[in-house]
Each structure stands twice: as C-alpha cells, then as structure tokens.
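Holo prediction — TYF.
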Amino acid sequence: MSKKNIESVNYGLEKIFEGAQDFLPLLGTDYVELYVGNAKQAAHFYKTAFGFQSLAYKGLETGSRDTVSYVLKQDKIRLVLTSPLTSKQEDINNHIVKHGDGVKVVALWVEDARSAWEETTKRGAKSFLEPTVEKDESGEIVKAGIYTYGETVHMFIERKNFNGTFLPGYVKWESDYSPEPVGLKFIDHMVGNVGWNEMDVWVKWYEDVMGFVNFLSFDDKQIHTEYSALMSKVMSNGNGRIKFPINEPAEGMKKSQIEEYLDFYEGPGVQHIAVATDDIIKTVSDLRSRGIEFLSTPPEEYYKAVPGRLEEHSHELREDIERLKSLGIMVDADEEGYLLQIFTKPIQDRPTLFFEIIQRMGARGFGAGNFKALFESIEREQELRGTLN
Ligand code: TYF
Ligand code: FE
C-alpha cells in the first residue's frame, strides 16, 4: 500500500473524535449475540477452539420454554449463543433459515438505555425493542434496541442497578469443562457488509443517528486486487472505544468477497469480529493447535517486504519475522506504530462470519498495507468455493 494511504490513517484523529457528539455516550461493547441452529454445540466450539469460559445460561431448566442461550466470556468479551426450542419462535427461526448462523445483536453498554433509545429513534432509528426493565434477585437492568443494517440490531444495556452474573433470567453456568483461554482480551472492531452503493447511507446513519464520526476511508482504488474490489469506511464513537468499519462491494473483474457474503448471508450483516490479544504469537499458536483454520499464509515476497513496510517502526518490531511467517501473521504500520493481524476462515458452512485476531503495537489503522495480501488469500478461498465468478 502506498505511503499516501498510510498517512491518511492518522490525519487529525483527535480533532475528528472531538467532532463526535455525546447524545449517545457509550461505555463499551456489552455483548455480541449470535442466532445459531444448535447453541449447545456452538458453545462447545467456542470453549474448545477459542478458549471462551462458561458464564451464564438460560433454557428449559431455568424456565425459558422458547429459547436457550449460553453466555461465554473471555476477559472483556461476552458472546451469547441463542437457539429456538420450538418452531413457534418465528423471529429467531426465520433469521436462521435466511442467514444461517450469524450475529443478531451488537449490544452496547450505556449509562441510560431509555435516553439512548429516545435520542436514536428521534434521529430516525427504527425501533427493535422499546425500553424494557428486567429484574431478578440481583437487581434490574434496562434494555432497548434499534435496527442497524440488514436485520442486525444494536441493543442498549443499562446495568448500573444490577450485580448478577449476566442479565436477569440467567443463572451462572457451572461447568467442569474449561479449556484454557487463548488470550483474547476485548473486541477491537466489528465490521458490517452492506449492499451496493449503500456504504454512504450507513455512514450517514451512524453519523446522524449514533453521533459517530468517519475517521478512516478506503476506496476501491486502494482496496483491490487484480480481480476484485471493495470500499470501506471506519465509523467511531466519540471516545474511540467502538469502531464499526462498513464495507460495500465494488465493481471488479470477478466477484468481490463482499458480494459473496451478501449472496450467502442473503443481505447485509456482520462480516467479522476483530478481537485483541497482547500476545498474538501465543494466541494464534493455541488457536491453530485447537483446530481453528486461518486464511492461507501470504507468499514469501510479502514477508520480504515487511521491513520496508514498517519504515521507521522497523526497529520496534519485537516479533521474529520467521515466526510470524510460520504462523501466517501479517504486519502493517502507520505513523504511530505497528500492528499484527490474522484472519480465520469463515467459522460456519456459509462463507459469511469470520474472526480477526489483532495485536496493536501503537498503530490505530486497520492494516491497509496488508489488504492486497489478505484479499488475494480470500480470493484463493473463493476460487475453491467456486464463488469468484
Ligand atoms: O477491518 C478491517 O478493515 C480490516 C481489513 O473484507 C478488512 O480487518 C477489510 C475488509 C475485509 C476484510 C478485512
Ligand atoms: Fe478488521
């Protein structure tokens, strides 16, 4: 990637964050909920392969007759896996029939869920759930939800009067089976794929409805391979804790990976969840040994070019390039530092949701210098799936 692109990464960041509005103060990501066909087996996968720990449960044993949910935790990350227990749960069943397993809810932790719902719906958000109080012996929470792209939802969670395990209605999930964590710390960003020419519609939606700012953009001239292209804009809230890049497909010689996603998810949705680690070599070694599959390793020339790509940060690199190469980890830098990242293959049969593992060593960008190698690797997978044409 050109020097020019890397420079655009940090231009006026502070000033841009100040431009964000505070009608929607966000404390962080609260949880991510996936609707899945078989939550029990999915939970086993996230424990065994990704090192998540059992946290909370609701299901038949707790009086939940219609749905079952397993809550998993690793450091600050909470995942909720939900399945319907009967065919009568139409919303969840229909979601799974249409999209396959995927992210339904990106929940945001707020001080005041009523205000979050009012401020966003009055700015044009479509309501998913009006402010609702839920209680149990551990206190009460307020939750409210709005739709974002596709059928995806942002739930606002106010938990200042609650000290239970997760949310009212859940019990602590005691399990004798607890594989070691792999060092995943928190969600760095979550990316949405939207339809043709819809990126700017959703950029404006995040600006107007959520008070976010666009702090980085990549156009199809920057993000392309010989065959395909996409465009991406990164939206951030005011304190920079929540970052949502939004991708749209762009015209290329062959089918864009974004188009492949839209075909198989049958609409817009969450494309990847990027999770941070502070020891990517250990995290990726562990994940590989537990059967997680990553995109193919970039070619030899990619690693030869690493010192050049790092420029002035090249002396800061603590990791051995040979070790990074053997694990397939990619390296990029911007003015403030470098970052290490790697991408899993899709984690379900449809080529939709995948994970990114990222370690930031000062850099605040998204690895623009890796885009070409990354997208070529994705195209090799598309080729195998017969979805490149
Ligand atoms: O979040 C990002 O922008 C990076 C790069 O389809 C990326 O992780 C961008 C688009 C994409 C896959 C990865
Ligand atoms: Fe990413």
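READOUT: Confidence is low (pLDDT under 50) at residues 1-12.
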